[in-house]
From TrEMBL:
It is found in: Cell membrane. It comes from Kistimonas scapharcae. NCBIfam families: PRK09543.1 (NF007089). Its main location: membrane. SUPFAM superfamilies: ABC transporter involved in vitamin B12 uptake, BtuC. Belongs to the ABC-3 integral membrane protein family. This is High-affinity zinc uptake system membrane protein ZnuB. Involved in the high-affinity zinc uptake transport system. CDD domains: TM_ABC_iron-siderophores_like (cd06550). The keyword Cell inner membrane does not apply.
Amino acid sequence: MPDFLLNALLAGLGVALVAGPLGAFVVWRRMAYFGDTLSHSALFGVALGLLLDINLNIAVMVCCVVLALFLVALQQKRFIATDTLLGILAHSALSLGLVAVSFMDNIRIDLMAYLFGDLLAVGTEDLFWIYGGGALVMTLLLWLWRPLLAITVHKELAEVEGIPVRKVRLALMVLIALVIAVAMKIVGVLLITAMLIIPAATAQRLARTPEQMAIGASLCGMLAVLGGLALSWYQDTPAGPSVVVCSTLLFLLTLALPQRR
């Protein structure tokens, strides 16, 4: 196997592994649009990283986390509907990033790679970021698993039991921001949320327990990565979108099966 294909495979499997359990909470808590908003801010993080001449992974992570904190602060004000707020911030962040990139005449940048991913261009440094960030996210997610389940099932009951609902919800948003930052290289800014939602939605139809759904989402994501890379290798299709297409096909296949509850 060529080195670039092996790196792409390892990167895709690493992202799918951590995106599965986190995607389950995105589906349960109906946070898909929140994920889109954070992913669109990733391009603005790229522009800031290039302007300030700092590591792009760090710039994207910081930008996503800051926007997550900003969203939480605005949601608590309740001066505007959440879906409207998310729509404003998502498109504003993406447009601001595109405008900022257009001013960089002295820097050559492949905008399509950031928008739709460049999985086959993943290097060793990217793998360190993916697996290092993934290990951090998985550790925190395991630590917060029970509180997250509690506030997802019944927020008021969780408050009565003494769970700090706001802090746990904020931690979930920060974890989503971190996953989006490390996954940008895989499927791009416009398709990151698909890696969170589609495998989790696929596993939801087959699982009986939250734990089964989380593990199944990771497995479905890994199968999609394998299928997408195979499609890209043999048919010369873009790798990131091919992974999403394979993930969608898996979801469509599960529609023919009876849903387990």
